[in-house]
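**User:**
Make up any protein.

**Assistant:**
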Amino acid sequence: MSVDPSALKVDELKVELSKRGLAVSGRKADLVSRLQMALDDEEFGLSLDTPTAANASAAPFSAPEAAAEPAAAPEP
């Protein structure tokens, strides 16, 4: 049986979320999104919280180092 989260009422969303052990707090849009992600994970084995082998081995992002201050111009 397929569930369309956007068609559910807040109480129904909370029931479906609690069945999956997920948080039931937040606005309806948050609940819909949370349930949709859980359904996608159940159907396709997707999980945004778990790194995949491809992105786990990638080097973490590091911010570029600040540029050194420019040298003072020589006085005339």
In short: The helical segments are 10-19, 28-44, 53-56.
